[in-house]
């Protein structure tokens, strides 16, 4: 293969969509795998809808993901080039100025139409095989409003020709655009590039992914706290399969494994739960390699929580939250997930302060013997009092109490132990809770439970 040249050509009429990012990624991976060039071309011929802030969002989003262009162009800088080709088409008779009857007030009375040769054409799509069209049904289609105002089909063909684009890798929704573009290519003497129309990204209801399904822009996933490595990894697997069991990839690994021939035809369903899992795996990699501090997101989560609950969280509470997230493994989640986890766990109700509860809650299932529960509580207090501070971890706490719990009945011992610490039917296991609360607070709560049982 000669040096392939590929492009992604978004319109700056909105923020970078996850589908556009996936298209850009497939082009980027293909170019890098084959020592080619990846081009970013901003298609801003729609002057009314194109905004500079959207262009900036697109470029920043791609750069955040690590998709860095080798060349950059804007259609608004290329007006004279389109004008030259339009004149050429008009002079050759391949296009003509069409007098239009305005359907509504303000409509144009003149446009430039392409003279359709009304022929059958086909192309061999790398993903979909041979695709055939009868162009007769297209009629003489509009390619410009005037010499100074080219429309999409004319501009995209001219750009691809001038930039030497060898492969056009884009969404399957562009298949219907291909016959018009093939006709224009012939008319201007351009070579036909190779096409690969990749499957659309679908929501769980198998409709096209849109805002009604939740987050759809790259910026939204960035704000939630997803890692760029995870987003890249996940969207690469939407419509492409490496043919192995491997699911976690670095960008370099994706470049090495990518093959257009392994892109599937069927639509790819976006599953945020899978993205969360992949994000967690990448976070583990980065933490283990020392590239990120797991506490960074946790501090941000605590600050977010402070703003949401509108109350103060003191330093001791912060330390406990840090331990909760570490013990639960939630410190490897996104900031948003950490905040949700803390709120849904009821953590702020029972960790900063001694929870209230009726003594009956300390009874395990149908047990009615409060003296027996009191004996277990006091034994827990005795065992944990002897455990050194430096060994007050969930694993060491479990090792210290397990023989006694197994002998007396794990439910009868561990249920009141957990309730004494949390006051709740549902909470983390008592070993983790004890580590989170610390030795002093754990023993205080066991004393509180013991005093309840004296009443």
From TrEMBL:
Keywords: Aminoacyl-tRNA synthetase, ATP-binding, Cytoplasm, Ligase, Nucleotide-binding, Protein biosynthesis. One of its GO terms (cellular component) is cytosol. Its EC number is 6.1.1.17. This is Glutamate--tRNA ligase. It is an enzyme of class 6 (ligase). Catalyzes the attachment of glutamate to tRNA(Glu) in a two-step reaction: glutamate is first activated by ATP to form Glu-AMP and then transferred to the acceptor end of tRNA(Glu). Belongs to the class-I aminoacyl-tRNA synthetase family. Glutamate--tRNA ligase type 1 subfamily. HAMAP family: Glu_tRNA_synth_type1. Pfam families: Anticodon_2, tRNA-synt_1c. A motif ('HIGH' region) lies at residues 10-20. It is found in: Cytoplasm. Signal peptide: none annotated. Residues 349-446 form the Aminoacyl-tRNA synthetase class I anticodon-binding domain.
């Amino acid at each position: 293969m000669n040096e392939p040249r590929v492009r992604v050509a978004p319109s700056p009429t909105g923020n970078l969509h996850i589908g556009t990012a996936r298209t850009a990624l497939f082009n980027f991976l293909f170019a890098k795998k084959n020592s080619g060039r990846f081009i970013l071309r901003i298609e801003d011929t729609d002057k009314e809808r194109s905004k500079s802030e959207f262009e900036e969002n697109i470029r920043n989003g791609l750069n955040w993901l690590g998709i860095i262009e080798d060349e950059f162009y804007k259609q608004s800088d290329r007006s004279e080039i389109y004008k030259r080709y339009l004149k050429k088409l008009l002079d050759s008779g391949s296009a003509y100025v069409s007098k239009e009857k305005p359907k509504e007030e303000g409509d144009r009375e003149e446009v430039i139409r392409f003279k359709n040769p009304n022929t059958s054409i086909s192309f061999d799509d790398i993903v979909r095989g041979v695709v055939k069209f009868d162009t007769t049904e297209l009629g003489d289609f509009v390619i410009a409003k005037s010499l100074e105002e080219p429309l999409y089909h004319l501009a995209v063909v001219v750009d691809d020709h001038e930039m030497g684009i060898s492969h056009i890798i884009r969404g399957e929704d562009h298949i219907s655009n291909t016959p018009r573009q093939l006709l224009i290519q012939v008319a201007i003497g351009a070579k036909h590039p190779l096409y690969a129309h990749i499957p659309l990204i679908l929501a769980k209801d198998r409709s096209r992914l849109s805002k009604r399904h939740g987050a759809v822009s790259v910026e939204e996933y960035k704000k939630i706290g997803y890692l760029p490595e995870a987003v890249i990894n996940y969207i690469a697997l939407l419509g492409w399969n490496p043919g192995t069991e491997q699911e976690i990839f670095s960008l370099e690994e994706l470049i090495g494994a990518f093959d257009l021939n392994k892109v599937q035809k069927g639509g790819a369903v976006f599953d945020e739960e899978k993205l969360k899992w992949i994000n967690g795996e990448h976070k583990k990699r980065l933490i283990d390699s020392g590239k990120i501090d797991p506490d960074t997101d946790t501090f941000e989560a605590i600050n977010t929580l402070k703003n949401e609950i509108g109350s103060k969280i003191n330093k001791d509470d912060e330390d406990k939250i840090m331990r909760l997230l570490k013990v639960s493994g939630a410190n490897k989640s996104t900031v948003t997930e950490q905040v949700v986890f803390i709120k849904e766990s009821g953590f702020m109700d029972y960790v900063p302060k001694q929870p209230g509860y009726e003594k009956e809650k300390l009874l395990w299932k149908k047990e009615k013997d409060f003296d027996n529960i009191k004996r277990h509580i006091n034994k827990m207090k005795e065992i944990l009092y002897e455990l050194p501070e430096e060994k007050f971890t969930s694993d060491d706490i479990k090792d210290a109490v397990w023989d006694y719990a197994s002998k007396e009945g794990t439910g009868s011992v561990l249920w009141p132990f957990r309730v004494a610490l949390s006051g709740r039917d549902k909470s983390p296991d008592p070993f983790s809770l004890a580590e989170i609360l610390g030795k002093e607070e754990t023993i205080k709560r066991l004393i509180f439970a013991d005093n309840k049982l004296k009443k």
